[in-house]
Amino acid sequence: MLYAGLQPINLTQLQTSFNRTEFSAKALGPTSAGTNNHAKSIQDPFETSPLVGVEFIAGDYPNSITAYLGTTPTLDGFIRNGEYNDAEKIIGVKGWKSDTPPASENSKDLSVVGWVKHDGSSLFFAFDVTDDVIYGFDIERWLPSTNPDANKLNFQKGWPFWGDGIELMMNSTYQWDDNGGCIGDGRSWQFCCSTNKSILGGLGTGGLSSGLPFTADVWARYENWIRNGDMAASVRLKGEDEGRGYIIEWRINPNPCMKVDDTTFVDLSKETKVGLNIELQDLDEKEKGEGNWGNMHHIDYWSKVESNRKTDLKSFGTLIIKPTSKDTADAE
């Protein structure tokens, strides 16, 4: 579930590589007192991807984003001035692939500005999402007719993705086959961050809410990552002066969350490529999603492959991890 500052991979290199109530600011994750005045919100993040209208077969999607070495951000749900100046920028959702056509073309309805970087120890993502209706806060927590238990936090019946939020999908091995999906360990995973619920806070408190695939061992592993702080996120609904929407800040520790093989984890001190996809979900009033899966208003992905292949490992784009700073790269 994009980008300004997109850096397409050279196609020759690619062929040789592996493939409606008003609300004030609500703190849904850890926050710091007195920081609201330092928060910034992107009011007009709408830009056009240079790849709009271009379709690629699975495994050939050439977009990439780079995680440069930068300062360590504070995970508190506030994007402070300068906090992500040393990060590569992500912009959507115009030009993304949508599971709920038509894709959002209205920046006030749904749009996102994001950033990615690392500090040598952990990988960080941040997202400033514009969303005019927040499920569970502006509207009731309605449930899909096919699953009245969607908001439960268990793998048997719960849907961790149900609500407004972002899913990150990562393939640390940067290897794939024709039909392979996420394994559910450090090699490849699909993880959900919701405004609506979280493993640590329960229903009504935003944060990490586990992910897919739905099996007992994967759920236990993901929950262990969350409780140990190996995967951490802060979610905050934006205040009225920031415009409608929410902020997500997300930290990922390579060990154990980015595993290359049985004994090796991604080393942020070395240039590395991993597979990445980003999914943005927008759940408005039920009637607004009529005809879509689960009546979801929008489900938008960075990767623009076939609708039933976006969670296949070979459908991911590329995250390039560099051990140098963005300033160094800009000066070259």
Which labels suit this protein?
332 residues, mainly beta, Immunoglobulin-like, 14-stranded mixed beta sheet, two-stranded antiparallel sheet, 4 helices, 16 strands, disordered N terminus
Detailed description of the structure:
With about 325 residues, the chain is mainly beta. It has one domain: Immunoglobulin-like (Sandwich), CATH 2.60.40. About 10% of the residues lie in helices and about 30% in strands. Strands 1, 2, 3, 4, 5, 6, 7, 8, 11, 12, 13, 14, 15 and 16 form a 14-stranded mixed sheet that branches. Strands 9-10 form a two-stranded antiparallel ribbon. A hairpin with a 7-residue loop joins β12 and β13. About 50% of the residues are buried.
What is the CATH top level name?
Mainly Beta
Strand and helix order:
HEEEEEEEEEEEHEEHEEEH
Which geometry do the CA atoms define? globular
User: Which whole number gives the mean pLDDT?
Assistant: 82
Strand content: 25-35%
Number of strand segments: 16
Helix/strand class: mainly beta
Q: Main beta sheet: strand number and arrangement?
A: 14 strands, mixed
Query: Roughly how much helix do the residues carry, as a percent range?
Result: under 10%
Q: How much is the radius of gyration in Å?
A: 18 Å
Low-confidence stretches: 1-58
